[in-house]
Design brief:
Number of helices: 12
Helix content: 55-70%
Order of helices and strands: EEHEHEHHHHHHHHHH
Low-confidence stretches: 1-7
Strand order of the largest sheet: 1-2-3-4
Number of strands: 4
Oligomer: single chain
Number of domains: 2
Mean pLDDT: 84
Strand content: 5-15%
Radius of gyration: 36 Å
Largest sheet: 4 strands, mixed
Length: 382
């Protein structure tokens, strides 16, 4: 029904009928557009705790009505039936009566509502194990294809554009300098502050330079840079390739005979192989500068003393070990981002999930690679 803009909004009044039975008198226009009250509000005003077992609903004052009144009456009837209260309508419009009777004619069938039973513990565990095995297999396959693509690039047989490498290198290299600078400087300051608090107890303030330099070069510089790049660049790779997958661009590459692993993945991998080690060197230097600031402000160690101690504590092997880790981190970030992007399903939500999964996967494997390489370096005495 069409509601008149000047119509009175539907209202109700609770009272007593001539025989002492509870009475609910409806008046005005009961339409969705005008808004409506709830069945609970009406029954609350009736005070069913002391009311008789019969309620009269008077519709003599009702003007316009639509599905709002039908829904309200169905709710009232069901609640009253559940409480063994008899409902008696008075002057109820014939159309409203038929619609309410039709809605209540067929009771809700038991089990009609679909409820998903949570899987049993063993079933859930087994499914998670199978998903992990399948995901590991897909990751190993993608890693093998990436290694083959690198081999083809080394022989000059890979099909990709060098301009793509330079473009990705620009995006994940110089444009990442501000965030790398901030994080590395703060990490260096934190390392220096923590070390200074402990070493001051032994009068060994000067060795804060050793602590900051070795920690940044061997561990923290590369790892913090990799984590930053995983969140910044790995997610971007996943979103880019996921969007291409949604638009069937990756399928188009396969159709015309261009391997996506060479044309799409290889430029991103090469760019990160170059960018992450360079950013790691920069992060190491910035972290040492952050440590020198804290040391100069909170101790008697001069900047020259800090510099001499730093240069004497870090060897070429330390730099080489840290840069090798950075190369591994770059490969992990590229593979995680590209893999999740190419695995993305064809929806906007799936692209977001792919970006999130790429970041999580990259960070997990970065920490794992850090632990493994550190143990290997210790065994080899590097």
């Amino acid at each position: 029904m069409v509601e008149d803009s000047k119509s009175a909004r539907g209202s109700f009044e609770v009272g007593q009928a001539e025989d002492g039975i509870s009475l609910v008198r409806f008046s005005g226009d009961w339409v969705l557009k005008a808004g409506m009250t709830s069945a609970e509000n009406i029954l609350a005003d009736l005070d069913l705790g002391t009311a008789p077992n019969r309620i009269v609903f008077d519709f003599s004052g009702v003007g316009r009505w639509d599905s709002a009144l039908v829904s309200l009456m169905v709710q009232l009837r069901r609640i009253c039936e559940g409480r063994n209260i008899e409902v008696k309508p008075r002057d109820m419009p014939e159309g409203l009566r038929r619609l309410v009777d039709l809605a209540l004619a067929v009771p809700e069938q038991a089990g009609a509502k679909r409820t998903e039973k949570p899987p049993a513990f063993l079933e859930s565990t087994g499914q998670q194990f199978l998903d992990a095995v399948r995901s590991s297999g897909e990751m190993l396959q993608f890693l093998g294809e990436a290694i083959i693509a690198l081999g083809n690039a080394a022989r000059g047989r890979a099909r990709f554009r060098s301009s793509d490498v330079l473009l990705v290198l620009q995006e994940c290299g110089p444009q990442a300098l501000p965030i790398v600078t901030l994080i590395s400087f703060l990490v260096g300051m934190i390392l220096a502050f923590v070390g200074l608090v402990q070493l001051e107890q032994f009068g060994a303030d000067i060795f804060v330079a050793n602590l900051v330099a070795v920690a940044m070069v061997r561990e923290m510089g590369g790892m913090m840079t990799a984590i930053i790049m995983a969140g910044r660049t790995g997610a971007a790779f996943a979103a880019q390739l996921g969007t291409m997958n949604v638009n069937d661009e990756i399928a188009a590459f396969r159709t015309i005979g261009i391997p996506p692993n060479e044309f799409l993945v290889l430029p991103r991998m090469l760019a990160l192989i170059f960018a992450v080690p360079l950013l790691t060197v920069y992060a190491n230097v910035v972290g040492m500068l952050g440590g020198s600031v804290v040391t100069g402000l909170l101790s008697d160690v001069s900047l020259l003393q800090y510099y001499v101690q730093t240069t004497s504590s870090v060897t070429l092997g330390d730099w080489a070990g840290g840069l090798f880790k950075a190369v591994v981190y770059g490969i992990i970030i590229a593979i995680a981002g590209c893999l999740r992007g190419m695995q993305s399903k064809k929806s906007a939500a799936a692209v977001g999930d792919a970006a999130t999964s790429a970041v999580v996967t990259a960070i997990v494997f970065i920490i794992l690679a850090e632990a493994v390489l550190t143990v290997v370096y210790t065994i080899l005495g590097v």
